[in-house]
Amino acid sequence: MRFLRLAALLCACxxxxxxxxxxxxxxxxxGIAQDAGYPQAGCYRPHCQPGWDDPDRRRxxxxxxxxxxxxxxxxxxxxxPDIRQQ
Length: 86
What we know:
- The chain is of the alpha+beta class.
- Helix content is 21%, strand content 20%.
- A three-stranded antiparallel β-sheet has the order 1-2-3, with no helix packed on it.
- Strand 2 and strand 3 form a beta hairpin.
């Protein structure tokens, strides 16, 4: 019986939900690094050094934006000092 429940649950997960009409709200993740980005301020250990040496290896701290195009609103969560570049 447990197997049948598990199989039914897995099959239900494979079925795509119908598209919602007018659903124009989405989440946008800005940046990819935790807390203060990469390299961390004041970190000159071997794992941080590549970020100081090569600007292309630097990563911005993450923020999250919820964008509601239908309502014309944007909500920004956990804005970081990197927000100007994002």
